Prior knowledge:
Elements: H1 2-24, H2 27-30, H3 46-49, H4 59-78, H5 82-86, H6 111-124, H7 129-142, H8 146-154, H9 158-167, H10 172-185, H11 190-198, H12 201-211, H13 216-227, H14 231-239, H15 242-250, H16 256-275, H17 278-283, H18 286-289, H19 303-311, H20 313-322, H21 329-340, H22 343-350, H23 354-365, H24 371-384
Amino acid sequence: MMWKSRWYLLSLSTTVLVTLQLLHNPSVIQSQMVAVSPVIDHEVSKSKVHSTDKDTTTPEKSKVHTIIAQEHLEQHERLPNDKEQDKPVHDKVIRKDKPTKFQNPAKHASDEFLLTFLLEQYKLSSDNVDEQLEILQNLEHFSHKYENGRDLFGSTNALKEILLPALNSSSIDIRKSACSIFAIAGQNNGLVQSKSSQAGVVRHLIHLVSSDVPVRPKALFAISSILRNYPDAQKKFIQDGGVLEIIKIAFLPETRRRGLTFLMDLINERKFCKESPMPRTKQLEEDELKELSSDDPCDQFDVLGMALEKSGWCQLLSDSVENLHSFGTEDQIVVIGAVGISLDICSSNFSNLIPYFHQLLVKFGSDVDFKDTKDTLESILGALSSPTISVPRIEL
């Protein structure tokens, strides 16, 4: 592509120079030193377009064509080369606090420079929601790197000065974008989880889940990232009433599956921690280990179980099983899994639901693709079944 572009520019430049020479030195034509094609006037009638007459263009029109050719050449000279076109958009930065003549938009931005630049520009954009949103979206992209997430939360005041205020912004899009940053940066990043937990982010996110419907999915994603494999954050989540709020939204048809999945992951993680607490510890770095101050990292006292039972978890599962006929297959599988891991908490609530589980076993038992679901149903029936119970036909 580069050689074609250069050839085109060279040809165009030669044409322009020859045209300029002819305009200033008509004797060149008379001496027949150079043969130049006549300039075609596109405004003439169709009958004259194919005329074989020699050039009858006026000097005024020749001047116009020359100006157009010069402008065209200048535009091509201003085009960036291939390397500049390949640069990411975020590598070209324009500072709001710097005069235009001192800008260098082609400067390559290192991660450190880019982070500092974005935070500075956010403060200067306090009156412009669109600019703030664009900066937060850049920070979200920036936080995909593990080290960048640590720098954002550990080396700057962004958490206190930007992200926490953004969670309380009057703009829905700003609140969503802030939640996305917590969700992306917090994934298995102990430092981000620790800083967020200590700053009270969990409480803010619980409030968004319970009362901010448009932001709810993003807030759930953010909470799950901060809580995953981090006992201290999970403890704060339980203490701040998070279990109750998740169960409340799980009763709603549109968020039932998300709520069930969220709490299932939390229950499974606590059970896994009790069985093998070491793997998570081995993954942590030395500075992150200092942040694990929980006296009961694996919930040996079953604080989560008590919170679930008190907050209506068993009633939620019973209601879900009774309404399985209105659920799709994937939602039915989620409910079956939730019941399977809650037998130790809710077995007394499930005894009258045995007919539903039998019918589910008929549906999933003959399909090899649902072997895990079949095994879960057999485990549930093994714990609950009684030979004296009749099984009526139930359509699912």
